[in-house]
Design a protein that fits this description.
The chain is mainly beta and 151 residues long. It has a single domain, classed as Roll (Thiol Ester Dehydrase, Chain A). The chain is 13% helix and 41% strand. The protein has a five-stranded antiparallel sheet, with helices on one face. A two-stranded antiparallel sheet has the order 1-2. Strands 8-9 form a two-stranded antiparallel sheet. The protein is elongated and about 50 Å long.
Length: 151
């Protein structure tokens, strides 16, 4: 996956706010009886990468001061190759859509140069109304302004 990078000083490269990449190692508890990562863990991996993306923006997906939440409204994952206990792999998030009230991401999973899986996730920005019901709301400007869409 193509990443937008820029140099902040002579020692550091920073991912631009159109995506984020993390590296993980498969834990034993994430595998099934066949020693392969159980499919459900890929959704957890996507969420972990999304949380790291928000932290890279200087916030948290669970920042109480914003008063907003981010429920998942769509998720998918296509599997191409297995991951096993102790495998190290990369999860790359790319922002593919942004509306006033939602964000869409594309994820790629790679072990070395092997494509493991690909997924999508769409989240909606919500705020509780006076009755305690979640209602879609505009993404706060201080978050939205930091997120760019890549081609």
């Amino acid at each position: 996956m193509k990443q937008a990078l820029h140099r902040t000083n002579k020692h550091a490269l920073v991912v631009m706010p159109s995506g984020h990449t993390i590296t993980r190692r498969v834990e034993f508890s994430e595998t099934d009886a066949a020693g392969i990562v159980h499919y459900s863990n890929f959704f957890k991996y996507m969420e972990a990468c999304e949380h790291a993306f928000f932290r890279s923006l200087g916030t948290s997906i669970a920042d109480k001061s914003t008063g907003v939440g981010w429920p998942r409204v769509h998720v998918s994952c296509d599997y191409r190759a297995p991951l096993y206990f102790e495998d190290e792999f990369r999860i790359a998030l790319r922002v593919t859509g942004k509306t006033r009230k939602s964000l869409s991401y594309e994820f790629t999973f790679e072990r070395g140069d092997i494509a493991i899986a690909g997924g999508t996730l769409t989240v909606c920005c919500v705020r509780k109304d006076e009755a305690g019901e979640m209602k879609a709301t505009d993404i706060p400007a201080d978050i939205s302004d930091k997120i760019k869409i890549t081609d």
